[in-house]
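Morning. Coffee machine broken again, so started the prediction first thing and wrote up yesterday's gels while waiting. Chain of 227 residues, entered below exactly as on the submission form.
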Amino acid sequence: MSLWGTLTGKKTSSTSSAASSSSSAPSQDNAPTTSFQSTPFDPTTAQDVSSFLGNTSLPDPSQLHPLAGLNQQTLDYLSLDESALSDLPGSRSALPSRGWSDDLQYGTGVTYLSALTLGGGYGMIEGLRRTPASAPPKIRLNSVLNSITRRGPFLGNSAGIIAMVYNGINSTIGYYRGKHDSANSVVAGALSGMLFKSTRGLRPMMISGGLVAGAAAVWTVMRKTLF
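Came back before lunch.
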């Protein structure tokens, strides 16, 4: 080794680099070699949405019902009598009835609409009579509308209240007596009419009770004759 090489250390660095290269070479030779080969895609083997939805492992939606799988013919405690008509004697009327609730709704609704129509017709005639024939059309129309809105709702509300009380009393009497007949209707009409005018004194109360009882008697005769 020359003096320059000893001073600069050139030979030493070259030998160290050679040693490092010789030590890394065996590690590269000993490293495992792996190769990845991708398989070609076959579109015929792919699953679509129809194949997923058509899978038999999915649950049947009809089986999610709480009563699914139950035989209603063998359930003795299940009584579906919501549509059964009333079996009390004399309970048949113009419309099929399932009990006091149907009678209350039908009777009150029909009575209210009938009285509202009659009151409106009476108010229209009254409004036409009040205005002179020479009055302008707007004044005649205003007078007719005022009379209709005054007479119609008053008569309809009054008759609806009486019908509601009448059906309630009639159903109560029929429940305790076990049958529906003309006596129930007349008594219920008298009581409902008297109750409607109970704040006006004894004489108006008796007159109202007699009028409603007479209307109930006419209704029972018409029901037996026509229905």
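DSSP finds seven helices and no strands in the chain. Going to sketch it on the whiteboard this afternoon.
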